[in-house]
Each structure stands twice: as C-alpha cells, then as structure tokens.
Glutathione S-transferase family protein
Amino acid sequence: MGRMVDGAWQADEGGTPGPGGQFQRPETRFRDRIAPGTRFPPEAGRYHLYVSLACPWAHRTLIFRRLKGLEGMISLSVTHWLMGEQGWSFEPGEGVIPDAVNGARHLHEVYAKAVPRYSGRVTVPVLWDRQEGTIVNNESAEIIRILNTAFDGLGAKPGDWYPPSLRDRIDAVNERVYATLNNGVYRAGFARSQAAYEEAVRPLFETLDWLEERLARQPFLCGEAATEADWRLFTTLIRFDAVYHGHFKCNLRRLVDYPALWDHTRSLYQHDGVRETVDLGHIKRHYYMSHPWVNPSRIVPLGPILDLDAPGSRRVAPLA
Ligand SMILES: N[C@@H](CCC(=O)N[C@@H](CS)C(=O)NCC(=O)O)C(=O)O
C-alpha cells in the first residue's frame, strides 16, 4: 500500500492507526456530480470508471453501471487484484482491463494526471472525465447516486434505487450498515489492538442480528422494493464468508448461518447480470495477498464452498 505526497508515490502500510489502535478511514477528495449545465454534463462516451473487482466500494459502482444499463455509455478499467508496493496496478492478469484512457500502469498515475501535486490515498472507485482530463468523483456512495439518475435522459435503464419516498428509511439503514458493517469489517481486520478489534466485532454482529430479524419480516431492507441500501449491504455480505470471516476475524458466525440474510444475498446475486460483477477469485486473492501484516504467508484459502446458485426467494425490483 502507499499514498501520494505532493504528487509523488510513497509506500506505507495501510494508513495511520488511531491512539487505541483503531483503523481510521480518510475522507475522499473528489466530490463533483454529473448534471446538466455543470462542468460535468451527462454525455454518453465521456466518462470512464476505474474499479477493482475485489473492492466492495468499487463493486457498488460496477453494480449500478449494470443495473442502469450504462455499459455502452461509461467505459471501464479493472485493476489487478494485488495491491502491492505501488498500490493498484494494471499489470496483466485474469479479469484485468487495462487503462485505455490514460495508459496508466498504476492508478496513482491517474490521480497525478488529475492533480499533479495530489496528496492523499489512491483508492478505487474513480469516475474519470475524458473531456476535462480529471477525476469527477472517487466516493462510491456518491458515484452510485450519480449513476442512478444522471444518464436517465440518455437512455439509461429505468428504475430509481433511491426513490424520494424511501430516502429517510434508506439513509437510516445506510448509516448503521456503513458504520458497523461496510466499514466495520475493516475496523475489525485492520485493528492494531485487541480492544479495537473487539470494539468493531461486537456491534458488527449486533447489526447482522438486527438485519436478519428485519429480513425475516420483509423481503428488502426498506420494505417490499429493493433499494440502494440492499446493494450497499450486498457488496459486504458477498465477501463475508470468503474473506471477512477468516482474514478479518469476523467469525462469531458465518453469513450462511443467517437464513434470511443468506437468502437475500443470493437473491441479489441472481438478479439480472449481477453475478458477472462478482469475482471471488479477485476478492480472495486481493485480501489474502495484499495485507502481509494480516496474513504474512500470503496463502489464499481454498474454501469456503458457497452455493450462490441455490435459488434465492426474493424478487429484486426497485419501487415501481
Ligand atoms: N470512501 C471510498 C473508499 C474506497 C476505498 O477505501 N477503496 C479501497 C479498496 S477496497 C482502496 O482503494 N484502498 C487503497 C488505499 O487506501 O490505499 C469509497 O467508498 O469510494
């Protein structure tokens, strides 16, 4: 891992822990929107998405690109699974899509093109604008909102995954799921003290219990329709038994031990085109090989065996 300081790459070991050994996630830097009449108007063929198939935050944006049928309008690069000394790269490998826009070998070159003296972390996802030659946004929560509506006038697939009538409910679920689960798995896995680890794992499983109870009563997190909140949960849960349970020590229970959550995960996985966005090979190799301070042998476990194709019972559709 590493970071940029004044436009130059510097290797490090995954950020600075807090005083109690807690993992601290830094703020993202590029926060613009795509909207008519702005510096970044909606246009087919203008924007490019950089993702890693391993990363749950980038995975959200890949899913929204698919849900909204934007493959023909927004081009894609996929990094190599290994995040090594130089950070994310486009070294050849199975599933890697090289950077045809900027010709970068490493993602940090893309950040340096946007801001030559950039200081900060070099993360995926990145939404790039070919015309201005810069980064529009590198915050997944915002990129999925952009993809959800910005291209609707240009022929994106209909469907609002963040409908006004459900926003309060979606925001409330997102807040808890982000703090204790999406980011909670990292707080557990990157903790540098026993106390920091336990402080992360206990609320994480309280949230899983709370979600299980909710999904036993209703098909989706905010009621009868699937929403953004379900997709934000999905990208963490699809990685749960394969990496967070072992590599990040989130092991009080497995996802498959929660019948409703496991059914919900499979239902989303089986929704139109979503399984093609899931690459457990990239996911497992990335985590087990990229964090040598967590897994010094870099051995990638063979299991678990997961039957993701066992039929899920929920009919995934946004609010009509
Ligand atoms: N807030 C960002 C977080 C993205 C993020 O942390 N991505 C990780 C991969 S899972 C990354 O690229 N980390 C590299 C680093 O921190 O150096 C988002 O949600 O878009």
About this structure: The chain is about 35% helix and 10% strand.
